[in-house]
Specification:
The structure holds two protein chains of two kinds. Chain A is mostly beta strands. Chain A is 0% helix and 60% strand. Chain A has no helices and eleven strands. In chain A, the strands form two sheets. In chain A, strands 2, 4, 5, 9, 10 and 11 form a six-stranded mixed β-sheet that branches. In chain A, strands 1-3-8-7-6 form a five-stranded antiparallel β-sheet, with no helix packed on it. In chain A, strand 4 and strand 5 form a beta hairpin. By secondary structure, chain B is mainly beta. Chain B has no helices and eleven strands. In chain B, strands 2, 4, 5, 6, 9, 10 and 11 form a seven-stranded mixed β-sheet that branches. Classes of the chains: A mainly beta, B mainly beta. Chains A and B meet through strand 4, strand 5 and strand 10 of A and strand 4, strand 5, strand 9 and strand 10 of B.
Protein backbone atom coordinates (compact mmCIF):
# COMPACT_ATOMS: atom_id res chain seq x y z
CA UNK A 1 0.00 0.00 0.00
CA UNK A 2 1.31 3.44 -0.92
CA UNK A 3 1.61 5.58 2.18
CA UNK A 4 3.24 8.91 2.99
CA UNK A 5 4.25 10.06 6.44
CA UNK A 6 5.57 13.41 7.61
CA UNK A 7 7.67 14.25 10.63
CA UNK A 8 7.25 16.25 12.75
CA UNK A 9 3.48 16.68 12.93
CA UNK A 10 3.93 20.18 14.32
CA UNK A 11 6.86 22.53 14.71
CA UNK A 12 7.27 25.90 16.40
CA UNK A 13 10.41 27.96 15.81
CA UNK A 14 11.56 31.54 16.40
CA UNK A 15 11.85 33.82 13.40
CA UNK A 16 15.14 33.57 11.52
CA UNK A 17 15.79 29.89 12.17
CA UNK A 18 16.57 27.40 9.43
CA UNK A 19 14.40 24.30 9.55
CA UNK A 20 13.88 20.93 7.88
CA UNK A 21 10.60 19.13 7.26
CA UNK A 22 10.65 15.41 6.49
CA UNK A 23 8.53 13.29 4.18
CA UNK A 24 8.75 9.50 3.79
CA UNK A 25 6.99 7.30 1.24
CA UNK A 26 6.67 3.51 1.20
CA UNK A 27 6.64 2.90 -2.56
CA UNK A 28 9.88 4.14 -4.11
CA UNK A 29 8.50 3.81 -7.66
CA UNK A 30 7.31 7.40 -7.61
CA UNK A 31 7.13 9.54 -10.71
CA UNK A 32 7.60 12.82 -8.87
CA UNK A 33 7.26 14.43 -5.46
CA UNK A 34 5.53 17.72 -4.81
CA UNK A 35 5.57 19.99 -1.76
CA UNK A 36 2.57 22.17 -0.99
CA UNK A 37 1.66 24.83 1.52
CA UNK A 38 -1.83 25.16 2.95
CA UNK A 39 -3.08 28.12 4.95
CA UNK A 40 -6.00 27.50 7.36
CA UNK A 41 -9.24 26.78 5.52
CA UNK A 42 -7.64 27.40 2.14
CA UNK A 43 -6.53 25.36 -0.84
CA UNK A 44 -3.03 24.13 -1.54
CA UNK A 45 -0.26 26.24 -3.04
CA UNK A 46 2.44 24.37 -4.93
CA UNK A 47 5.92 25.11 -3.64
CA UNK A 48 8.25 22.74 -5.42
CA UNK A 49 7.94 19.79 -7.78
CA UNK A 50 10.85 17.34 -7.94
CA UNK A 51 10.83 15.01 -10.91
CA UNK A 52 12.05 11.45 -10.36
CA UNK A 53 15.20 12.13 -12.39
CA UNK A 54 16.14 15.09 -10.18
CA UNK A 55 17.71 15.11 -6.75
CA UNK A 56 16.63 18.57 -5.63
CA UNK A 57 14.81 21.78 -6.49
CA UNK A 58 15.25 25.29 -5.16
CA UNK A 59 12.96 28.30 -5.06
CA UNK A 60 14.04 31.33 -3.07
CA UNK A 61 14.49 30.31 0.57
CA UNK A 62 13.13 26.82 -0.10
CA UNK A 63 15.11 23.76 -1.09
CA UNK A 64 13.64 20.30 -1.50
CA UNK A 65 15.59 17.10 -1.96
CA UNK A 66 14.50 13.66 -3.09
CA UNK A 67 16.12 10.30 -2.36
CA UNK A 68 14.03 7.61 -4.06
CA UNK A 69 16.18 4.73 -2.83
CA UNK A 70 15.56 5.58 0.80
CA UNK A 71 11.98 6.76 0.22
CA UNK A 72 12.59 10.19 1.64
CA UNK A 73 12.25 13.86 0.78
CA UNK A 74 13.15 16.90 2.83
CA UNK A 75 12.05 20.51 2.60
CA UNK A 76 14.58 23.00 3.89
CA UNK A 77 13.37 26.51 4.77
CA UNK A 78 16.08 29.08 5.32
CA UNK A 79 15.73 32.15 7.52
CA UNK A 80 12.12 31.42 8.47
CA UNK A 81 9.59 34.26 8.71
CA UNK A 82 6.20 34.55 10.44
CA UNK A 83 4.60 34.51 6.98
CA UNK A 84 5.90 30.95 6.55
CA UNK A 85 3.44 29.77 9.20
CA UNK A 86 1.18 27.22 7.52
CA UNK A 87 0.74 23.48 7.07
CA UNK A 88 3.21 21.90 4.68
CA UNK A 89 2.17 18.76 2.80
CA UNK A 90 4.16 16.50 0.57
CA UNK A 91 2.61 14.32 -2.11
CA UNK A 92 4.18 11.26 -3.71
CA UNK A 93 3.03 11.12 -7.30
CA UNK A 94 2.40 7.79 -9.01
CA UNK A 95 1.12 8.62 -12.46
CA UNK A 96 -1.98 10.69 -11.83
CA UNK A 97 -2.35 9.24 -8.34
CA UNK A 98 -1.31 11.74 -5.68
CA UNK A 99 -0.74 10.24 -2.24
CA UNK A 100 -0.56 12.98 0.38
CA UNK A 101 1.09 12.97 3.75
CA UNK A 102 -0.77 14.27 6.82
CA UNK A 103 1.24 17.50 6.85
CA UNK A 104 3.52 19.38 9.23
CA UNK A 105 1.97 22.39 10.95
CA UNK A 106 4.64 25.10 11.17
CA UNK A 107 4.46 28.14 13.42
CA UNK A 108 7.17 30.79 13.10
CA UNK A 109 7.14 33.10 16.10
CA UNK A 110 8.12 36.77 15.69
CA UNK B 1 -3.79 33.61 -16.11
CA UNK B 2 -6.69 32.94 -13.75
CA UNK B 3 -6.30 30.13 -11.25
CA UNK B 4 -8.59 27.24 -10.44
CA UNK B 5 -11.97 28.43 -9.23
CA UNK B 6 -14.48 26.52 -7.18
CA UNK B 7 -18.09 27.34 -6.40
CA UNK B 8 -19.68 27.64 -3.99
CA UNK B 9 -17.03 28.34 -1.36
CA UNK B 10 -19.26 27.36 1.56
CA UNK B 11 -22.29 25.11 1.73
CA UNK B 12 -24.53 23.82 4.50
CA UNK B 13 -26.74 20.82 3.78
CA UNK B 14 -28.90 18.43 5.75
CA UNK B 15 -28.40 14.67 5.99
CA UNK B 16 -30.06 12.86 3.10
CA UNK B 17 -29.83 15.77 0.69
CA UNK B 18 -27.60 15.87 -2.35
CA UNK B 19 -25.06 18.49 -3.37
CA UNK B 20 -23.23 19.54 -6.53
CA UNK B 21 -19.88 21.30 -6.46
CA UNK B 22 -18.29 23.02 -9.43
CA UNK B 23 -14.69 23.48 -10.53
CA UNK B 24 -13.27 25.56 -13.38
CA UNK B 25 -9.67 24.62 -14.21
CA UNK B 26 -6.91 26.90 -15.38
CA UNK B 27 -7.40 27.84 -19.02
CA UNK B 28 -5.84 25.17 -21.23
CA UNK B 29 -5.75 22.52 -18.50
CA UNK B 30 -7.62 19.37 -19.45
CA UNK B 31 -7.21 17.21 -16.36
CA UNK B 32 -9.27 17.83 -13.23
CA UNK B 33 -8.92 15.92 -9.98
CA UNK B 34 -11.08 16.05 -6.85
CA UNK B 35 -9.98 15.50 -3.27
CA UNK B 36 -11.68 15.33 0.10
CA UNK B 37 -9.87 16.76 3.11
CA UNK B 38 -10.92 16.01 6.68
CA UNK B 39 -9.03 16.40 9.98
CA UNK B 40 -9.15 12.66 10.59
CA UNK B 41 -8.31 11.24 7.15
CA UNK B 42 -6.30 14.07 5.64
CA UNK B 43 -6.36 14.57 1.88
CA UNK B 44 -7.91 11.69 -0.02
CA UNK B 45 -8.21 11.33 -3.77
CA UNK B 46 -11.75 11.06 -5.12
CA UNK B 47 -11.42 10.90 -8.91
CA UNK B 48 -9.72 12.39 -11.94
CA UNK B 49 -11.24 13.44 -15.25
CA UNK B 50 -9.52 14.00 -18.54
CA UNK B 51 -11.27 14.87 -21.80
CA UNK B 52 -14.69 14.20 -20.25
CA UNK B 53 -13.67 10.68 -19.15
CA UNK B 54 -13.04 9.45 -15.63
CA UNK B 55 -9.48 8.12 -15.72
CA UNK B 56 -8.87 7.29 -12.07
CA UNK B 57 -11.04 6.74 -9.03
CA UNK B 58 -10.27 6.63 -5.33
CA UNK B 59 -11.83 4.42 -2.72
CA UNK B 60 -15.11 6.22 -2.12
CA UNK B 61 -18.69 4.92 -2.23
CA UNK B 62 -20.86 5.31 -5.31
CA UNK B 63 -22.65 8.24 -3.68
CA UNK B 64 -19.72 10.31 -4.89
CA UNK B 65 -19.77 10.94 -8.61
CA UNK B 66 -18.48 13.48 -11.05
CA UNK B 67 -18.38 14.57 -14.62
CA UNK B 68 -16.40 16.82 -16.91
CA UNK B 69 -17.71 19.00 -19.67
CA UNK B 70 -16.21 19.73 -23.07
CA UNK B 71 -14.75 23.01 -21.78
CA UNK B 72 -12.93 21.00 -19.04
CA UNK B 73 -15.11 22.38 -16.26
CA UNK B 74 -16.00 19.67 -13.78
CA UNK B 75 -18.72 18.98 -11.27
CA UNK B 76 -18.87 16.51 -8.45
CA UNK B 77 -22.07 15.28 -6.87
CA UNK B 78 -22.66 13.69 -3.51
CA UNK B 79 -26.03 12.04 -3.00
CA UNK B 80 -27.71 11.01 0.26
CA UNK B 81 -25.38 13.15 2.37
CA UNK B 82 -24.04 11.79 5.64
CA UNK B 83 -22.54 13.69 8.57
CA UNK B 84 -19.17 12.21 7.71
CA UNK B 85 -19.23 13.93 4.32
CA UNK B 86 -18.51 17.25 6.04
CA UNK B 87 -15.15 18.25 4.64
CA UNK B 88 -13.18 20.63 2.48
CA UNK B 89 -13.48 19.50 -1.13
CA UNK B 90 -10.55 20.52 -3.27
CA UNK B 91 -10.27 20.54 -7.01
CA UNK B 92 -6.95 20.54 -8.85
CA UNK B 93 -6.14 20.95 -12.50
CA UNK B 94 -3.15 19.99 -14.59
CA UNK B 95 -2.23 20.39 -18.20
CA UNK B 96 -2.91 16.79 -19.10
CA UNK B 97 -2.85 13.32 -17.62
CA UNK B 98 0.92 13.08 -18.07
CA UNK B 99 1.71 16.44 -16.51
CA UNK B 100 2.29 15.78 -12.88
CA UNK B 101 2.14 19.26 -11.40
CA UNK B 102 -1.28 20.06 -10.03
CA UNK B 103 -2.72 23.47 -9.21
CA UNK B 104 -5.36 23.60 -6.52
CA UNK B 105 -8.45 25.73 -6.10
CA UNK B 106 -9.49 27.32 -2.78
CA UNK B 107 -11.92 24.51 -2.01
CA UNK B 108 -15.58 24.21 -1.07
CA UNK B 109 -16.31 23.82 2.63
CA UNK B 110 -19.30 21.47 2.98
CA UNK B 111 -21.04 21.13 6.32
CA UNK B 112 -23.68 18.43 6.73
CA UNK B 113 -26.04 18.84 9.69
Amino acid sequence: KQEVTQIPAALSVPEGENLVLNCSFTDSAIYNLQWFRQDPGKGLTSLLLIQSSQREQTSGRLNASLDKSSGRSTLYIAASQPGDSATYLCAAIYGQNFVFGPGTRLSVLP
Amino acid sequence: KAGVTQTPRYLIKTRGQQVTLSCSPISGHRSVSWYQQTPGQGLQFLFEYFSETQRNKGNFPGRFSGRQFSNSRSEMNVSTLELGDSALYLCASSLDTYSYEQYFGPGTRLTVT
